[in-house]
Amino acid sequence: MKQKKSWEISDAFWEKAAPLLPGKERNPNKQYQRKPGGGRPPLDSRKTLEAIFYVLRTGIPWKTLPKDFGASSAVHRYFRLWCEEGFFKALWVAGLASYKEVAGIQWEWLSAGGCMTTVPLAPETAGKNLTDQGKKQQQTPYARRRCGSTPVSGGNRS
């Protein structure tokens, strides 16, 4: 049996996620140049969601998304649109609700922790420029020629 990748969506998950996707509506106050259904066809929503999960799971830049998923700019546009429409928040809430039904969530036992500290040794050891980080503060000067001699005058010869 072929093992599923971590970004592939199962049929059961898709049945729960598909109704939460924002609908495609035309603005009635806007005058469009094309008729409804004209232009490029939209990307498949399931494939687009898999592409978004692929980017989030692997941590790759959007531009390096494999061509199997479609154009990276189109997938990123859907990601931004769905974030603005609250799709991922609704998906998270639905996931919590279904988990609560199955296993139960004991909210009174949950806690959040965090820690805020300064970066160790950052401002003290780094120079004024960020590119100076990790360099020795006192470096030896470059070797110099003897005073009063130039390569042309021949003063360096013994």
Distance between the termini: 82 Å
Count of individual beta strands: 0
**Which of globular, elongated, flat, extended, rod-shaped describes the shape?**
extended
Can you summarize the main beta sheet?
none
What portion of residues belong to β-strands?
under 5%
Radius of gyration: 30 Å
Overall average pLDDT: 77
Low-confidence stretches: none
The string of secondary-structure elements, in order, is: HHHHH
* Helix percentage range: 25-40%
Number of helical stretches of at least 4 residues: 5
What is the structural class?
mainly alpha
Account of the protein in words:
The protein is mostly helical. It has a domain at 44-105. The chain is 35% helix and 0% strand. The chain is built from five helices and no strands. The protein has helices spanning 11-17, 45-58, 72-85, 87-102, 122-125. The chain is extended. The model has no long low-confidence stretch (mean pLDDT 77).
Q: Care to give the gist of this entry?
A:
By secondary structure, the chain is mostly helical. It has five helices and no strands.
What is the secondary structure topology, with strand pairs?
Blueprint: H1 11-17, H2 45-58, H3 72-85, H4 87-102, H5 122-125
Helix pairs in contact: 2-3
Brief descriptors of the model:
158 residues, mainly alpha, extended, 0% strand, 5 helices
